[in-house]
Structure formats: C-alpha cells, structure tokens
Design goal:
With about 425 residues, the chain is of the alpha/beta class. The protein has 14 helices and 18 strands. Strand 5, helix 5 and strand 6 form a beta-alpha-beta unit. The protein is elongated. The protein binds NADP nicotinamide-adenine-dinucleotide phosphate. NADP nicotinamide-adenine-dinucleotide phosphate binds next to helix 1.
Length: about 425
C-alpha cells in the first residue's frame, strides 16, 4: 500500500480524496498498489468534518510522518508552500504539487533539493497531461516553440467579447460563475499564465527565468474595436503564453495575441485550455482540455500519485544531465520581434494619416494593412504592421501619442503568424 498525506483540502484536495475513493479499483490496477490517504492538513478543521480522513493543522504531521510515502501539497501560494515542500523533500518524501506559483519561483531550487520523486502535472493546464507530454513523450525533440492558452478565465472573457459583450460585464459574470477570483488581476493581468509558461520553458530549455524577467501583459485593454478588427482581418484574439527558441536565444512572453482563424489554437473557446508544442522531430503537437476545476485538476494530481506508486522516478525538469546544448539566454522584452496591430484614436483632421505613417517609417515600421472606423466626434485608426522590433514600436507610440490630434493612449497587440 502507498500512504499519502494531503496538505490543503480545498477545491483540488477534496476532489483528490473523492476521486481516489470513487475510482479506487482502477487506480489500484494501474498503480499496482492500493493508494490510501492517511492524513490531511488544513487550517480550520471545523470546515472539513465531512471528510473521512484524520486531520491535523500541523504540516509536519505529514512531512515528517514515518508512515507517509507521498506528500501532496495543495495549499497554493509561494512561501508557506516552499517551506512545506522543502521539509517534505528533506525528510525523503516523494512530493506531488499543483502549485504553479511555487514552481514559477522555486523550481530549480526544488529540483536540487529533490532526491525523491517530484511531480507537478496539475500545475500547468489543470487536467491536460502536458507536462508528461513535454517532459516524457517529446524527449526525442529539440523544442522549437510552445504556444499555450493556459488561463481559462482570460479565454472565457475573450470568447464572450466576440459576441459583442463588454469586457467589464463579462468579467463580472466570470466572477459570479466562479471562473474569476474576487481580485481578478492575477488571471486577467497574465501572471497566472506566465507562471505556467515558465514551468514549460524550463522543461523545454532548462531556462531559470522568473516572472519579473519576462514580458507579461493582460487582457484589460482589449475592447470591442479590437475584436471587430480581428474579425475583419481573419484573426482571433487570445491570451497566449509563448516560448520560442531562436538560435541560442529564448523568447518568453505572455500577452493578448492576434492569431489567424485557421490555426487550431484559435478555435479554443470558453474556459478550455490548449497547448501547441512544436518539436524538431515530431512537428506540431497539440494538447486540449479543461485547465481548471476540482475534478480535472485532481485527475492530474492522481496521475502523479500513480506514477510514483508504480516506482517511476522521472527527473523533475526532464533532464538527468543539464541541457548544456540547449543552454540559452533570455531575449530582453524590448528586443522581441513581432508583427503588431495598433489602435489610435484621433481627431478627424487632414494630414493625420500622413504624420502617423511618417513616424512609423522613421522607426523602421512598415504598415501592412489599415482600417478607419469613424466614432462620435473622432476616428479610430487601426493598423497592422510588418515585423518590427518591440523597442521601435514603443518609441513610435510615444512619439505619436505626443501629437495633438491623438486623443487617447494608443493600444497595441502583437500578431503571431
Ligand atoms: N482550483 C483549480 O481549478 C486549480 C487548478 C490547477 C491548479 N490549482 C492549484 O492547486 C492548489 C490548490 O488550489 P485550490 O483551488 O484547491 O485552493 P483552495 O480551494 O483555496 O484550498 C486551499 C486549501 O489549503 C488549505 N490551506 C491554505 N493554507 C494553508 C496552510 N498554511 N496550512 C494548511 N492548510 C492550508 C486550506 O485550508 P483552510 O480552508 O482550513 O484554510 C484549503 O483546504 C493551488 O496551488 C492552485 O494554484 C488549482
């Protein structure tokens, strides 16, 4: 029998307990052993009397319990979780976690500390087994590119906005439905997606970047004009986490992105997640499914428990010897090269277009397409550009925003083709 202690019995923890019991027989057959939760740790025991497991409020009752083989950390957050997981590893417990925030900051330290199995399938894209796909299934490949819709809240909001609904109205509804937190910044600001992207990127490229090192933009400034433009030019707007390898440099970024409607990933709607991974041997692969929710996430957590119960011990980040050939540097956000879409609100005056085109040209930016949308008393100019360097776009925007006919801050979205 494999004995498990779970620290955190909220949405995911409770679903793990429930599904281990519900599918006990098939899980036992697959693991080759019975799996039993022998202790749970929470802060307020009164809330958990309905669960039929012994409870404690001291995590050491699990991390230092000689009877326990696997410690499952499901409390979330960074510092306390790091303390708990480190303690478990120091006491030679195998660890399973769903905690992307913890891994976004501490995955390399934990890898060093871990002499026992350490699994974290649920930390990226919830129920989709993308970690195992990338780390194990694609181990023959150099990873050329990863593109992911890895935040269901943002994808839900953008999908609803396509129906002509306003951002604020949809966000409120997402909060009522429980898709978005009371403070939604973490999701809509792109930070949650960034945590997940960093985990994927370290498996693909052995790159030890922190959220502060990469470009992160959220969906807060997307409006219905952008959605209209996207439709008109055959794009969808998605919040994407993107990791790309260019020679010995790695590009990591999270931002709203215009992608062509015919791309598979652009068809992912609502709260669903999807990750596309391009390997040099296999070509493009795609993983789709529910990125959150108690049961979906528990499915991934239990798969990790089964993996460990079988006696498999995978290298945590997918390499037993550091990926020296892949050892790459991170491209600074200002040096990213992309195509761009610009939304510029201007007074309806003569010569406006010419002045803007001139400034763009001065900054090495050439226009690919252009659309003009008259509004009450002003005009919205919508441009798409050919490939340009991020710092040139920012410089051009700063200059254009100073022109007296420009009446609002300029919005821009990167185009991925
Ligand atoms: N929910 C999802 O759909 C989802 C999807 C993918 C990944 N995840 C990840 O899974 C983890 C758990 O998420 P969740 O949604 O299940 O969270 P949750 O519903 O908020 O539950 C958190 C649990 O942890 C306990 N807890 C918090 N701090 C603790 C501490 N210091 N000591 C002991 N227990 C503590 C809480 O107990 P009390 O109630 O007593 O405070 C509660 O039982 C997070 O890392 C999250 O990012 C969640």
């Amino acid at each position: 029998m494999v004995k498990v202690g779970i620290i955190g019995l909220g949405t995911v923890g409770e679903a793990v307990v429930k599904n281990l019991e519900k599918n006990r027989e098939i899980i036992k057959a697959r693991a080759g052993k019975e799996i039993k939760v022998i202790k749970g740790v929470i802060r307020e025991p009164n809330k958990y009397t309905h669960l039929n497991i012994p409870l404690s409020t001291d995590y050491k009752d699990v991390t230092r319990n000689p009877e326990i083989d696997i410690v499952v950390e499901l409390i979330g957050g960074v510092d306390k979780a790091f303390e708990i997981v480190s303690d478990a590893l120091k006491h030679k417990k195998a660890v399973v976690t769903a905690n992307k925030a913890l891994l976004a900051y501490h995955r390399f330290e934990l890898q060093k500390l871990a002499s026992t199995p350490f699994e974290y399938e649920a930390s990226v894209a919830g129920g989709i087994p993308v970690i195992k796909a990338l780390r194990d299934g694609l181990s023959a490949n150099h990873i050329l590119e990863i593109k992911g819709i890895i935040n269901g809240t943002c994808n839900y909001i953008l999908s609803e906005m396509k129906k002509g609904r306003d951002y604020k109205e949809v966000l409120k509804e997402a909060q009522e439905k429980g898709y978005a937190e009371a403070d939604p910044t973490f999701d809509v600001g792109g930070f949650d997606a960034a945590h997940k992207l960093l985990i994927l990127a370290s498996i693909a490229y052995n790159i030890d970047a922190k959220p502060e090192d990469i470009l992160i933009e959220g969906i807060e400034n997307i409006n219905l004009t952008d959605i209209e433009f996207a439709k008109e030019f055959g794009y969808e707007i998605k919040l994407l986490g993107i990791a790309k390898k260019r020679d010995s440099e790695i590009e990591l970024r999270v931002h709203p992105t215009l992608i062509k409607q015919q791309e598979m990933i652009s068809k992912v709607e609502g709260v669903m997640n999807a990750v596309s991974v391009i390997g040099d041997v296999v070509g493009e692969t795609m993983y789709y499914g529910p990125g959150a929710g108690g049961d979906a996430t528990a499915s991934a957590v239990i798969s990790d428990i089964v993996e460990i119960a079988r006696g498999n011990s995978n290298p945590m980040l997918g390499f037993k010897i550091p990926l020296e050939i892949e050892k790459c540097t991170l491209i600074k956000p200002d040096n990213i090269v992309s195509k761009y879409y610009l939304r510029i609100a201007v007074k309806d005056e003569l010569g406006v277009l010419e002045k803007i085109a001139h400034i763009l040209a001065q900054n090495n930016i050439s226009i690919e397409s252009f659309l003009q949308k008259p509004r009450d008393g002003y005009v919205k100019l919508l441009f798409s550009t050919h490939k340009a360097v991020e710092k040139d776009i920012k410089k051009a925007i700063k200059t254009i925003e100073k022109l007296n006919f420009v009446i609002k801050p300029i919005n821009y979205i990167r185009i991925e083709e």
